[in-house]
Amino acid sequence: MTAVPYRYLDLNQYGFVGYGDAVKGLDLGHRIDSESGCSEVFSLKDGLTVATFCGE
């Protein structure tokens, strides 16, 4: 698990990271799925995936 890279913090896909995105980012983690190689942003509270980014 690592800190969420800046490019993945724009979870609402508005094209910029707003204040709300930055605050939500404090409760998120980042991992790379070993099977697919996709990047996953997940909730630190329960470990559930919030967003998945593939093919970058």
Q: What characterizes the major β-sheet? A: 3 strands, antiparallel
Total DSSP helices: 1
Count up the domains.
1
The helix content is 10-25%
Radius of gyration: 11 Å
The parts where pLDDT drops under 50 for at least 5 residues are none
SS-derived structural category: alpha+beta
Strand order of the largest sheet: 1-2-3
Number of strands: 3
Order of helices and strands: HEEE
- Overall geometric form: globular
Query: Cα distance, first to last residue?
Result: 19 Å
Name the beta content range.
25-35%
Mean pLDDT metric:
84
Structure notes:
It is built from one helix and three strands. It is α+β, with helices and mostly antiparallel strands and 56 residues long. The chain has one domain.
Itemize the secondary structure elements and their pairings.
Elements: H1 19-25, E1 28-32, E2 39-43, E3 49-53
Antiparallel strand pairs: 1-2, 2-3
